[in-house]
């Protein structure tokens, strides 16, 4: 979301117009992965506009991750600057309600999986490192029917098993946990190591979580 105060990673944008879709990562354009300077995927967004021959003010609906707090002044600054909004400042909130759809972090993950699966209804399970300030859940599960989610339960906090994966990557000396995912398929199960790691994970009626503290290698 533009001017979101939280530091993000792997910024990307997607533009859909008349049956064609453009999707690209900001790092591919800047050539620097998570460069620490970009706070919104502006380059990839405008490349999408150019590729599909569409202007910002012609967008019917903007879909953005829901921030912790909606800052209308900052949103107005952004959308008026890129000329997506050309109306009066007093009418901007009305435009936001009509043109912008804010979706929670984990619901975006869940919908991506559901819509790409082709299934019309079923059960969903979503596990992440921790979401963001606009969505503090780290695990959600429930049923879906069409575009409707019926959440049964969720877990919050920083001891998600998704974060456990980050800790393992850190111990291996990697700053990017994706490398550990890629290398995992080439590894071998070591029974002693497996038992030690299992001791750090708890599963009970409150959920599933890991013992979040630093250990010696």
Fraction of residues in helix: 25-40%
What ranges have pLDDT less than 50 throughout 5 or more consecutive residues?
none
Assess the beta-strand content as a share of residues: 15-25%
Task: Give the number of DSSP strands.
Answer: 9
Multimer state = single chain
N-to-C SSE series?
EEHHEHHEHEEEHHHEE
Total number of helices = 8
Average per-residue pLDDT, rounded, comes to: 89
Rg, nearest Å = 20 Å
Instruction: Name the strands of the widest sheet in spatial order.
Output: 5-6-7
Brief digest:
The chain is α+β, with helices and mostly antiparallel strands and 217 residues long. It is 33% helix and 24% strand.
Summary keywords:
8 helices; alpha+beta; three-stranded antiparallel β-sheet
Describe this structure in words.
With 217 residues, the chain is an alpha+beta fold. The chain has eight helices and nine strands. Strands 5-6-7 form a three-stranded antiparallel sheet, covered by helices on one side. The chain has a two-stranded antiparallel sheet with strand order 1-2. It has a two-stranded parallel sheet with strand order 3-4. It is globular. The two termini are 38 Å apart.
